[in-house]
Amino acid sequence: MLKIKNLHAKVDGKEILKGVNLEVLPGEIHAIMGPNGSGKSTLASVIAGNEDFEITKGEVIFEGEDLEDASPEERAHKGIFLSFQYPVEIPGVSVTNFMKTAINESRKGRGMKDMPANQMLKLIREKSELLDIDRKFLSRSLNEGFSGGEKKRNEIFQMAMLEPKLAILDETDSGLDIDALRIVANGVNKLKSKENAVIVITHYQRLLEYIVPDKVHVIHDGKIVKSGSKELALQLEEKGYDWLKQETVV
C-alpha cells in the first residue's frame, strides 16, 4: 500500500529526514517511535502532503502511484488520513456539518455525487454507535471546548466516517489519561480491516498495549535505525533510545 524509498525532506532549509525507507502492506499496523526531534511527525506530514516540508530526494509511493505532485486534498481523496497531534478548534462548525462537508468533498474529488442525506445520517449513527459517541457531542462546534480525550476521540470518529485506506495517527496518545487512551485505541481496533493500514506514531509503549502493531520502527536523526516486532517497543521502554543510535535498519 505504502512504499517510501530513500526519503529526504527539509523544512525552513533544515534537513529533517535523511533517507527513510518503509513499506506498509494492507491489513498491517506499524508503530513509529523515536526521541523528540527525530523526524516522526515530519514523516507523517510529508506522507500527508504538508507543503511546509520539501522532499529533496526519494519517493513516496501510495498504491503504486508516486505522490510527489499530489496536493494534501488529492492525497485525502486517494485514502490517506492524518490524525493531528493538536487538533484545531473550528467555532461555529458542528462536528456533523464538518463531517458532511469532508465526505462530500472527498466524493467530489473521486467524481462521485454528494452522499444522500438519509445515507449520511445512517452512516453518522452507525459510526457514533460503534465508537460510543453521544449524539450531543455531534452537535458541538468542532473541538471547541473539547478535552484532550474528546479531541482525540473526534479524530477517530473522522477516521471512521472517511474510511481511509491509510490512517496515520500522530501521537494520538499525547495528553490522554488511561481511560481516554483505551477509548481511542478501541476505536482504532474496531476500524482495522484487511483492506486498510494504520501507522501509529508514539513516544510510549503504553499505547501499543492496546493497539498491537505488526511492526515497530525506530527513527533517530532522520532515519529508521531499527525495525522489529512489538517486543522492540518493550525494549525501548526499558532501555530508552541511546543503545540504538549506532544501529542500522534490520
From TrEMBL:
Coiled-coil residue spans: none
Entry keywords, A to Z: ATP-binding, Nucleotide-binding
What's the short name of a Pfam family annotated to this entry? Answer: ABC_tran
Report whether ATP-binding shows up as a keyword of the record: yes
Q: Give the matching PROSITE patterns.
A: ABC_TRANSPORTER_2
Q: Where is the ABC transporter domain?
A: 2-246
Q: Name one GO molecular function term.
A: ATP hydrolysis activity
KW Lipoprotein (keyword) present: no
Question: Which family does the record assign?
Answer: Belongs to the ABC transporter superfamily. Ycf16 family.
Q: Which NCBIfam families match?
A: sufC (TIGR01978)
Q: What is this protein called?
A: Fe-S cluster assembly ATPase SufC
Q: Which organism is it from?
A: Muriicola soli
